Amino acid sequence: MSASTAGIEIPTQSRRLAAVVELLSSMRFAIALLTVICIASVVGTVLKQHEPINNYVNQFGPFWSEVFGRLSLYAVYSAWWFLLILAFLVVSTTLCIVRNTPKIMADLRQFKEHVHERSLQAFHHKAQAELPEAPRAAAERIGQALVAQGWKVRLQSRETPTGTGWMVAAKAGAANKIGYLAAHAAIVVICIGGLLDGDLMVRLQMAFGGKEPFRGGGAIAEVPDKHRLSDANPTFRGNLLVTEGTRAGVAVLAQPEGVILQELPFDVELKKFIVEYYDTGMPRLFASDIVIHDRYTGEARPARVEVNHPVEHRGIQIYQSSFDDGGSLVKLRALPMGASVRPFEVQGRIGEATTLTNGSERLRLEFTGLRVINVENMGSANAAATDVRAVDLRQAIEARLGAGHKTVSERTLRNVGPSVTYKLRDEAGQAREYHNYMLPIELDGQRVYLLGVRESPAEPFRYLRVPVDDNDAMDGFLRLRAALADPSMRAEAVRRYVAQAAPAGPAPPAQALAGSAQRALALFAGEDPEIERLPHGGAPRLGGLQALSAFMEANVPEAERERAGEVLLRILNGTLFELYQLSRERAGLPAAARDDKTANFMTHAVLSLSDAFFYPAPLVLQLQDFEQVQASVFQVARAPGKTIVYLGCVLLIVGVFAMLYVRERRLWVWLAPQDGGARATMALSSNRKLLDDDRAFERLRALLTSP
Predict the structure, then answer these.
(1) Whether the Cβ atoms of residue 140 and residue 134 lie closer than 8 Å to each other
(2) In whole angstroms, what is the distance from residue 128 CA to residue 672 CA?
């Protein structure tokens, strides 16, 4: 490269560098970055962060879950693009501060007393007056008056062709520019504090320290060191689960690819978890009585952790985050859904699993949860029939059982008792989750057991209502369902129904009635020979009222369906009642009375029998007894950036208030000698135009006419 070429290239590169610096330090660029960060923060708030990848697959599907994963939306605040934008914002704001601070500081020191008289004529607020005083005396008087009003004043003398003139330069509200610096510095400070309190240090150790997430299971003590962080880690935030009577000292840091274990310099022993309730059953207090065992000094420090009242030890905050089951012992009664198998009992601990088998089929029973208190909204609402295919808490039951959305009905909170959650997993590994209440709940004037089921954690539970019998149990319904599955009992129920409906009538009508009753009952039981040819409507097995509806659509003209449906339902209800009486007779129980209570039971039983075809389990596990073991979930955090963030918030408040409520003003009064007195020219400038500027200037103008 020639010397002349080099002489041209260097200034060109300098201009490019200056242009880049100008762009980075521009306010519009910073605002654009701040807007992107706000949008990303909204995504990080709406979308749960650091969840297991299977949860996202269940929620969004395989394609979109992978797309969102590649965009790092499951860990927005530690995504490379978010940190890059944050870094650009810090650099941009810092350059803006560096570039403007010298100008602002110089402007704070200047009174701009060198302004010429002709320049004062260009201001919006200006005035002139003839004063009998000499210029110096008038300048001193006006200056003292302005100082008394809080202005900072500087006097300057100038030589003019007619004598010595005096300039009075005053300023007020200089804190407005300090507010500009404080607000911009707050952005930098808050971003730095946020980075220190984020998982940036964890990411750096994973990238350069040989650490990697743990994706397996098993005991924490068996996890290798490459999945553990030292207790000297300067910043982290994780969860610590401690069961009553035990102690733990390793926190879990959730990551999209698994978990990282964080060693703590102490162990937390949970003596007792305390929960107190209001009269309505809503929780009033969550607290944990703990003992902190220091690993270095051996000190045992008792403490109490409550919500919003954390405990600090060795710079680590211990928060009461939530609570969980610590391995409660539950005893369940297995009730077969229609199978000719006697009920049996099974027990286990929450978090464990066992195997159920009938010889040809194996199911893995996983005990997943026990809730002793369930506070639900039992306010009145329009109730639809519970259909386990589509009924969820949002449509029929959820409006009463504590839905998150508002309902038009009045909220009536009530504790409905304990509930158990479990999973049944088949030999292919597919699992469904079940949620059953221990006690019956009164809905629509009938006490029912609620049996919940869902296909995946991303779905809400759908509930099957099972009406209780005379003993407040499900046995009556289960006997009726077992009788419905027995062809001989169906035939006997039809015979009894026909004998009562047509005791002495002609044989042909009685035979026709018997055929209709037999057909209706077989369709309802899902065992009619022609049921496979009927439209299933997406149901895995056709039966119940859906089978009757499909049969009528296929065989009855549309104009006659309403009348035919009424007749068919009367026949069905009559035969089902006889079937119920027959099931009680076989069980050695007296016949049910023909009263309103029995009629109400049969109405709900018919709906439940119909919906039970969509209940995917061959048995129901009813909670009989339990021994509760509580566990506390603590959030442990070492947050060195917290103080920095607080400082940034203070700077931001000071800066915003200074810029919004402090008005920078400058006043000039030029006093020129004239015929033994002075000719005064006054001008006022302000960084913001307000409605009271005219009134304020009139008060200042009075200084010219008040010697």
Answers:
(1) no
(2) 11
